[in-house]
Every structure is written in C-alpha cells, then in structure tokens.
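Hi all, posting the design record for the shared folder.

TITLE: backbone redesign
STEP: 1 of 1
STRUCTURE INPUT:
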C-alpha cells in the first residue's frame, strides 16, 4: 500500500527508504491556495508546510516596549531601553523590502538592548495544531523559528555583525549566551504544547560571514542543546542554511539536525548533492538541491525531468527529499514542474 505524504516525509527524514523519494515543495509559494494547481500540489506531492505561532518573539519577550515615529516621510521603529532609544528603519518597494538601519551600531547599543527588562512571552501554538489537523496526511507541518546565534544579525547590520566578531568576539558570544538563556525555556514550552517539527533559520549568518570557527562557536555550540530539547520531546529539527556548505557539513551534522536544505549547487553554493550525501548522508536527511527561483521556476519540462532524475539518483532512495529552497518563493511555472518531478520519482521507484 502506498505511503501517505506525511509517512513518506517522516520515513525520509529519519533516514529510511520510503516507497518513493518525496517531492517536496515548501508550501504553495505564490500559487493561489484556492486554485486547482494548489490542490494538486497538496494532494499529489509531499509538501512541507511552514507555520508561525503566537508569542514568537522569544528574545525581546513581553516586557519590551516600542513605538513608531514618522521622520521625513519614513516610518522608524523605536525600541525603548533603560539606557536610551534604539532606532531602526525598514523600507519596502513594490517588489521586496529590506532593513536599511539596524537597532544596534556599537557595543554600547548592544548593552542597551540587553538592559531591557525581560519577561517571557506567552506561548500559543494553536495555529500549529490547526494547520496540522487541516493538512493531515497530505504533508508535514513545521514551526519556523530563529536560533539564538542569529540574534546578533537581527540587531546589527551585516558589516557591524562581522566587525563585532572580528573585534570583540567575547561580546558577540555573550550576546548569543543571553539569547540562548531566553530561547531554551521558550522552546521547552513550545515542545510541551505539542509542536513536533521545527524549521530552524539563522545558521547561514555565521556560515557566510564568520567562517568555520565562527560557525562552531556561535551556532554549533548553542544549537546542539536546541536539537537535544527537540529530540527529548520527540520533535524533528529541520535546518535551513544557504550558501557554501562544504566547510560546514560536519558541524551541521554534529548539531544533531534531522534534515538540511537547500544544499545549493554552484553557482549559488559549492556542493553537489553527491558530495553532501557522501559526507553526511548517513546522519542527515538532505532536502534540495534545485533552486526554486533560478531552476524550478525557469527551466522547461524536459530539463526539469532530466534534473529530477539526476538528483534522485544522487540523493536517493533513502534520506532524501527532492525539493527547492524552503523559502516559498516559487510561482505557477514551478508548481507544474514539481508535478513533473513527481512523475519522475514515481517512474524511478517503479524500476
């Protein structure tokens, strides 16, 4: 009897061999959820559905206060601290948005940020349970979270983030240590309330900017406990990490993660699927490695058929999900290509 999508994904993530390689779009991308194509992707493919939960800001908590200010037609966010205000500016265009000014520009700003009285946020995971019940056996639902090591990148610009690590690593580590002390109890409560799958972001800040030693000290050393907490409660730890992977594969596996995406091939990354499989495929389920926007959303049907077969032969049949980037950026063209990849997976499974 064929596996359900949920059974198939769980089998692959646990490094088993499912009835066929899962074909795993991250949600529905930009496809209208009421459309026939969306219905087919949910019912026929093996989607990973991301969901947010209430009380998400585990770092600032419930005691932090902020307000907005209009300055020369721009809306600034102002975070109030016992040592003065911290200000940030986020700008949007018709296409995208970006953080233009970050809250912290100096060690003194970091000290001001950490001086804010902390009260844990109320945890509400009802949205997760509602989504899980709705999706049922048609896919896997996971809660998206940021890890402790990503908090410096949340409050510092990329340049200041890198310079802080180069000039004052002790302050950087202290920042992450404070974040971890807030994060672990929050994560324990989320797990106690029944969340059984997580998608973790944040590692790529260190892997792309701090190098292997920086990754180990700011991510690996703190994310190990994160993964342990999840596993103690029977939850899965899926890790999302863009960029070059070869120098970091062993450290990522050492965290204890269950699955990893997107394992980007050149020119976006540095690692073929076969190389990643040989390095850590016995310890981590690999999810990828076809880019949503640059490949699945652009190439024609014959090309996607060829690429899908190549990836399945490299990554499967065990511990592998054929996917793009778990960022939900694809459109209808990619949706049809996911359905074509599904037919390739079925054909190869049938021998």
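Okay, here is what came back for every position:
SEQUENCE:
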């Amino acid at each position: 009897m064929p596996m359900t999508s949920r059974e198939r994904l769980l089998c692959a993530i646990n490094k088993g061999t499912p009835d066929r390689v899962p074909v795993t779009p991250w949600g529905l991308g930009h496809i209208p959820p009421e459309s026939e194509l969306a219905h087919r992707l949910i019912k026929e493919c093996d989607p990973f559905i991301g969901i947010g939960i209430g009380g998400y800001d585990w770092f600032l908590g419930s005691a932090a206060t902020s307000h907005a200010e209009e300055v020369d037609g721009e809306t600034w966010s102002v975070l109030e601290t016992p040592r003065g205000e911290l200000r940030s500016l986020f700008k949007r265009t018709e296409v995208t948005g970006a953080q233009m000014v970050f809250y912290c520009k100096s060690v003194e700003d970091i000290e001001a940020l950490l001086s804010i009285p902390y009260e844990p946020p109320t945890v509400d995971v009802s949205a997760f349970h509602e989504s899980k019940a709705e999706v049922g056996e048609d896919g896997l639902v996971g809660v998206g979270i940021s890890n402790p090591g990503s908090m410096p990148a949340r409050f510092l610009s990329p340049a200041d983030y890198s310079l802080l690590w180069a000039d004052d690593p002790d302050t950087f580590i202290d920042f992450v240590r404070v974040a971890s002390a807030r994060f672990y109890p929050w994560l324990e409560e989320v797990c106690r309330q029944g969340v059984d799958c997580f998608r973790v972001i944040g590692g790529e800040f260190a892997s792309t900017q701090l190098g292997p030693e920086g990754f180990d000290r700011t991510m690996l050393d703190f994310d190990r406990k994160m993964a342990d907490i999840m596993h103690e409660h029977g939850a899965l730890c899926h890790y999302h990490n863009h960029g070059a992977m070869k120098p970091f594969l062993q450290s990522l596996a050492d965290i204890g993660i269950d699955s990893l995406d997107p394992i980007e091939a050149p020119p976006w990354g540095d690692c073929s699927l076969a190389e990643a499989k040989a390095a850590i495929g016995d310890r981590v389920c690999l999810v990828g490695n076809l880019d949503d926007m640059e490949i699945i959303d652009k190439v024609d049907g014959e090309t996607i058929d060829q690429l899908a077969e190549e990836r399945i032969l490299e990554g499967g049949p065990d511990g592998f999900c054929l996917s793009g980037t778990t960022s939900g950026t694809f459109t209808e063209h990619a949706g049809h290509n996911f359905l074509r990849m599904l037919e390739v997976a079925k054909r190869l499974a049938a021998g």
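COMMENT: The longest helix spans residues 169-192.
Let me know if anyone wants the other runs.
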